[in-house]
Write a structure and sequence with these properties.
By secondary structure, this protein is an all-beta fold. It has a single domain, classed as Jelly Rolls (Sandwich), CATH 2.60.120. The chain contains no helices and nine strands. The termini are far apart. About 10% of the residues are buried.
Amino acid sequence: MTSIVDFADSPAAPQPLRPAEDRILAGDPAQSATNHYSDPSGQFHCGIWESQPGRWRVRYTEHEVCHILAGRVVITGDDGTRRSYGPGDSFVIPAGFSGEWEVVEPARKLYGIFEPAA
């Protein structure tokens, strides 16, 4: 039987992240991700992401469900659509989305990512 992965009992440690320098538009968005689970195919991942304020360009090849735990983020699509999210808000960013992520207040989110096989 496969075991349930309880984030509270997970031995995963935060891994530092940073957008590529050529994608950063403002601020110093130091980030970390604590990946608590990846499926055997390597296509599905989930965990906790944190970021300091900043704004950067994104291009999604994966589908991501996000649930904001703390802070405030603003996501703007290349089509000009702008959405603001805070604690308790949930949303999905589909593969193919291109635009900007902005962390307005230090943020923390729960993520689930599905990266389709090439």
